[in-house]
Amino acid sequence: MAPKVYIVIYSLYHHIYTLAQEVQKGLVASGIDAKIFQVPETLSEEILTKMHAPPKPDVPVITVENLSEADGFLFGIPTRFGTMPAQIKSFLDSTGGLWASGGLAGKFAGTFFSTASQHGGQETTAFTTITYFAHHGMIYVPLGFANPHLFDNSEVIGGSAYGAGTVANGDGSRQVSQKEKEIAQTQGENFGKVVVTYAKGKASA
Ligand SMILES: Cc1cc2nc3c(=O)[nH]c(=O)nc-3n(C[C@H](O)[C@H](O)[C@H](O)COP(=O)(O)O)c2cc1C
């Protein structure tokens, strides 16, 4: 059976969802059974309408129980004030039972991002997420500079050593670029290779 990675996202305007689909392609290329989930919404329909939110991505809502099923997780995070949105924090805060049982210890974790601005805090979002992985005893897998587009300064390109990323503009008008999609695929592929290698080692131990 192929190792499982769950891509867990929150995506109000679908930039993170677009990246997630590219991350999924990379994971599948590495032989992973990869599924996209979204965290539960915490905002009311009234607020979502006022925020001009389109319909939600067509992916299932994750439960805490689902987390036990996977070997690793890639979290897709649209930055809020330089850190994760309340929706993702609220979901992660509900994993206390798994923390108490060590249920996520030894599972792999990584992150990817979307910000309005190039300077909007993709890296601070990564840092402030890592505390959850550390407390759970999860194994954090960064992207590094695994894709050459991360050295390209000729145009706006989201992402960093901490994970793929996109830059959406304040009004959400900028769409995920081809280079950002390729970086996201690389992240999925590399993360997948780590999980597959570990699973093979466990099987032969
Ligand atoms: C309350 C709020 C706070 C935000 N804070 C930031 C921020 O600190 N830096 C930034 O660049 N963008 C910020 N944004 C913009 C979001 O990061 C952007 O809408 C999101 O990345 C788009 O991803 P999505 O299309 O997947 O929802 C903020 C948006 C909202 C609604």
Automatic annotation (TrEMBL):
Domain of life: Eukaryota
Recorded GO CC terms: membrane
Name of this chain's protein: Flavodoxin-like domain-containing protein
Family matches, as Pfam families: FMN_red (PF03358)
Molecular functions (GO terms): FMN binding; NAD(P)H dehydrogenase (quinone) activity
InterPro entries assigned: Flavodoxin/NO_synth, Flavoprotein-like_sf, Flavoprotein_WrbA-like, FMN_Rdtase-like_dom
Family designation: Belongs to the WrbA family.
Domain (Flavodoxin-like) ranges: 5-191
Matching SUPFAM superfamilies: Flavoproteins
